[in-house]
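B., you asked whether I could sanity-check this one before it goes into the benchmark set. Here's the sequence:
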Amino acid sequence: DVNKLSNIEAKTKSFDVDLSKFKAAINVIGDKCKEDVLIIVETTVPPGTCMKVVKPILDNCFNERKISSNYKLGHSYERVTPGPNYINSIRNFYRVYSGIDESSKDATEAFLKSIIYTDEYPLTRLESTNASEMAKVLENSYRAMNIAFIDEWSKFAEDSGINIYDVIKVIKMRPTHSNIMFPGIGVGGYCLPKDPLMASWSYKNLFHSAIGLPQSEKAVEINDLMPLNSFKIINKHFSNLKNKNVLFIGVSYLNDIGDTRYSPLELLYDKFNDRESKVTYYDPYVKFWEEKKIYSNLSLSGSFKNTIDIAIIATKHEVFYKDDYLYKIFLDQPKMLILDCQGLLSNNQIGKLQKKHILKVLGRGDI
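And here's what the prediction gave me:
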């Protein structure tokens, strides 16, 4: 346990951005492209990458080829929605862009207008590629810090007998606070667990800051450790977790998609595995959990009766709460500990389930 915690805490201190493959790709482009090419970087990169990494490589390639460096270089970070709306979100969403000079900005704008419905979703031009690159990592870092912020308040609510969901709903009535987060089991996906660290790395290595972005680094550390709160809640109710049957209900990091990259359930799985618990999972979008090399139960209904000691609602897939799906299944099961990490169950459902089960909800100290 100590080693796992220290590894997570060390992540923010030793984080490094390996740009070797990215640089190799830019070299290939520089060696093969036409003189008047337009190159647009859309991937998430550390601020300063276009000017301090890409441009010098391209200039060197063009110089070695003895051709004029009249290429155009722009940056416009992708803003896609994972899941069924992925393709739609490419064409129907606001995009930010810039370029290393005015001609690059104009060319980037013209290209984006050819694929994005800009009449409805206008483009926004920033002054430099540094600014465009920063916009992406700041956007994600803000969300990561918002999540980290609510984590400690969730624990406060649990220890003080308060229903934090009611508190947050009241706060959300203020337009200036409408995006405050609700509690959750943790952060996953490809962006939020790393983008704040990428930004801090950029500040230290490309812009020579001595301290980087310590608050952003701390947010990543808090978010990485969030699943441990769920484990502690469960651990209070069992003196020994050996051979206990644990069911993860959802392993995707986000609702209604089948993406398990950096899922917070990985750490929770490891914790139960260390205690020799028997972990299984059900996720209608994930039949094979690649990171843990295990397959899903194909159905919840009737498939785990008399076999589950602990059920953890980890992902808020619509199918779980539509038509009271999980609630009805739980009503039909023998006594177990149910941990709702998503606030999925209603107060009425909680009241009825408590007559049969031990039930806990993250951020709710009132039950």
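One thing to flag: The CA atoms of residues 250 and 283 lie 5 Å apart. Otherwise nothing jumped out at me.
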